[in-house]
Amino acid sequence: MSLVVKQKERKGIINPIFTCQPAGAEYAAIGIKDCIPLVHGGQGCSMFVRLLFAQHLKENFDIASSSLHENSAVLGGQPRIEEAVHTLVARYPDLRIIPIITTCSTETIGDDIEGTINKLNGQLKQAYPDRKIVLVPVHTPSYKGSQVSGYNVGIHAIISTLAKKGEPTGKLNLITGWLNPGDVTEIKRILKDMDVPANILVDTESFDAPTMPDKTSFAFGNSTIEEIADSANALGTIALCKYEGGSSAEFLQEKFKVPAIIGPTPIGIKNTDVWLQNIQKLTGKAIPESLVRERGKAIDAIADLAHMFFANKKVAIYGDPDLVIGLAEFCLECELEPVLMLLGDDNRACTKDPRIAQLEKQAACDIEVIWNADLWELERRIKDKSLEIDLILGHSKGRYISIDHKIPMVRVGFPSFDRAGLWKYPIIGYKGAEWLADTIANTMFADMENKLEREWILNVW
Predict the structure, then answer these.
(1) Over 90: is that where the pLDDT of 273 sits?
(2) 135 pairs with which residues across the strands?
(3) Which residues 6+ apart lie within 8 Å of 63 measured at CB?
(4) What proportions of the chain, in percent to the nearest 5, are helix, strand and coil?
(5) pLDDT over 90 at 420, yes or no
(6) H or E stretch including 383?
(7) Residue 136's pLDDT band (boundaries 50, 70, 90)?
(8) Mean pLDDT over residues 233-257, rounded?
(9) How much is the pLDDT for 215?
(10) Rounded to two decimals, what is the model's pTM?
(11) 418-427 burial string, b = 16+ CB within 10 Å, else e?
């Protein structure tokens, strides 16, 4: 069977899969405790991203803006950075780190972020001698890249600024990439079962914020400055997403000799097997029987569904590259056929990813991979009937394609806002594989009943 990789044919974008670079850097930054990112650009560059985060996670987050206006395009926006930083430091006494995230406008006018930070460091030292405020330059022009590259740039800037050589910690660095809080909870549970102490970079489990009896409820990141600094002293680093944190793992290896393993994203049985083996390789810890049993349960759940319901069903997948590739690998494990993969990023390196080449060897179907894709690539194929699709996997931005063309859809990825609580449930690990299989099956069952297509089979299954 063939696998074809190509870029979309149009220059313009119709119904985008991804958002801009600053959004990714902002997501990385809000995962850090005592941190408020400052977005250097127009107010919408923080407001609309905050709205996306709130839609997906049903929580609010502190993200500041330098709020540029027209005069800054002529005179420069550095004074707005200075005013914003001084305002944040004065207003938030617990604030310890401010990533300064650029946008298309401020990169175009050429504001000197590093020079402004040097100036501010002197001012802050004089004004607040008892406080240490770390300012981090994060360059994310939004006329190129996507939230994927923005996350990668953001976490790399933060780690490279804070990481400091010291005494060995005996801990494992685990760079999560853009995963949901439920995935981070699952990661921490698995590491606990393996008795592996770890630095989770970044720890977003606390985004699932409780409403307490005193009525307080606020979501914040859980990774501390000290933990990020100690990433230089770990026994190894595993980056779960190649394109969202992989460069940070490489940096720690090159500068501090911390062994790095990049990927695979542990979606499905095989990828989770590899992840656990990588943890074992770096730490020497055994894989416990409890995880072996979880693996068996996940395989049993998939076996119950694969041949009878999943076999030969054609799937379209869209989203960020690590997610799409991981889901395609999972589909093949379940006898689903990932005939269309839409990579929502303009990174040409995705086209040479060895995981994609491996898909061609394993697949029993033709696969089309479009990079720098948009959702029109999916809708056009459905409309002109050039591709038959039985199931869609992707975030909520594609829901109208599902509705208009009556194709069942499972929401996976960011942003997913039209179904309740999806960010609570992991898609990684063996439990994630089981949840994915069950959710796909139940979505297909509901579609069979609604269309009266072989719904009778559910009576005797």
Answers:
(1) yes
(2) 98
(3) 26, 30, 36, 37, 39, 46, 49, 50
(4) 50, 15, 35
(5) yes
(6) helix 376-383
(7) very high
(8) 98
(9) 67
(10) 0.95
(11) eeeebbebbb
- Cα separation, 54 vs 24, in Å, equals 15
Q: Residue 52 corresponds to which amino acid?
A: L
Residue 332 to residue 353: CA distance in whole angstroms: 17
How far apart CA 320 and CA 343 sit, in angstroms, is 6
Instruction: Map residue 41 onto helix, strand or coil.
Output: coil
- What average pLDDT does this structure show over 233-249? 97
Q: Residue 16's CB: how many other CB atoms inside 10 A?
A: 14
Residue 458 has pLDDT above 90, yes or no: no
Amino acid occupying residue 149: S
Tokens of 308: 């009878």
- Which residues fall within 8 angstroms of residue 41, CB to CB, at 6 or more apart? 22, 65, 66, 68, 102, 103, 104, 105, 106
Q: Give 342's strand partners.
A: 318, 370
- For residues 109-145, b (16+ Cβ closer than 10 Å) or e, as one string? eebebeebbeebeeebeeeeeeeebbbbbbbbbbeeb
Distance CA 63, CA 47 (A): 8
CB 191 within 8 A of CB 218: no
Residue 231: both structure tokens together = 């990433």
Which pLDDT score is estimated for 161? Answer: 97
Cα dihedral 250, 395, 414, 247 in deg (nearest 10): 10
Tokens of 114: 């590093």
Q: In what order do the strands lie in the sheet with 172-175?
A: 198-201, 172-175, 236-239, 260-262
In whole angstroms, give the CA distance from residue 341 to residue 317.
5
Residues 6+ apart with CB under 8 A from 369: 3, 4, 5, 6, 341, 343, 351, 356
Q: How many CB atoms lie within 10 A of CB 74?
A: 7
The pLDDT of residue 459: 85
Ranges of beta strands (E only) in 120-195 are 134-138, 172-175
Q: What is the average per-residue pLDDT within 233-261?
A: 98
What is the pLDDT, as a whole number, of residue 269?
98
